[in-house]
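Show me a record, fold above all:
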Amino acid sequence: MSSPEIASLSWGQMKVQGSTVTYKDCKVWPGGSRAWDWRETGTEHSPGVQPADVKEVAEKGVQTLVIGRGMNEALKVPPSTVEYLRNQGIDVRVLQTEQAVKEYNALAAQGLRVGGVFHSTC
């Protein structure tokens, strides 16, 4: 299964190939995507993305996981989350969301097993 392309991104809205849903924040992986509901793990802008937020995507067998920190990079990514992924042999890219989407789509177009978690507002 290939990683779906992120078809569009604007403030508060993301569309992913193969899904009819418009996401605010989303998780994507080879063969799928879903809304990223921060309430599931109690995530807030600070301390930010927790290992529990990326665990689901990491378990899909991704080689690289791209984290979009928001349009203004308000969402933090603590070292513990990066370490969690690297300890599983996953390459981690932490970027501003517009750049993260470009990076994710480029990796997906190369046929890599790439996943991502993206925050589409601040």
